[in-house]
Amino acid sequence: MKQAIVARADLGMGRGKLAAQVAHASLSAYEDTDTRTRKRWKGGGQKKVVLKVNGESALFQLADKAERAGLPTAIIRDAGHTQVDPGTVTALAIGPGDDDEIDRVTGDLSLY
């Protein structure tokens, strides 16, 4: 079991901003996950991987692919209080889910 969080590298977010966006995405997807999967993921150490893409359209394409696979997803839009404009799409979480299911969606992406 794992969760993949995909963040936009093209926005030039600082480390703290990136960390906050990744946390928002992770928690939001977790909240939309069924209880059985939550328990399996938590019991297995809550494995996460942070990946990168360039551009909003890449995030939405991944979200569509993940949703078609039946995986929980969460798209994060920033409030715009600090480094990016209001409504900017910054990150996507996929899962938690089985490793192989997550890898079918995100396996060709690079680590952040």
TrEMBL record:
Enzyme Commission no: 3.1.1.29
SUPFAM superfamilies to which the protein is assigned, alphabetical: Peptidyl-tRNA hydrolase II (SSF102462)
Keyword Cytoplasm (UniProt): yes
Reaction catalysis annotation: an N-acyl-L-alpha-aminoacyl-tRNA + H2O = an N-acyl-L-amino acid + a tRNA + H(+)
InterPro entries, alphabetized: Pep_tRNA_hydro_II_dom_sf, Pept_tRNA_hydro_arch, PTH2
Location within or outside the cell: Cytoplasm
Protein name, per record: Peptidyl-tRNA hydrolase
Species the sequence originates in: Haloferax marinisediminis
Classification lineage: Archaea, Methanobacteriati, Methanobacteriota, Stenosarchaea group, Halobacteria
Gene giving rise to this polypeptide: pth
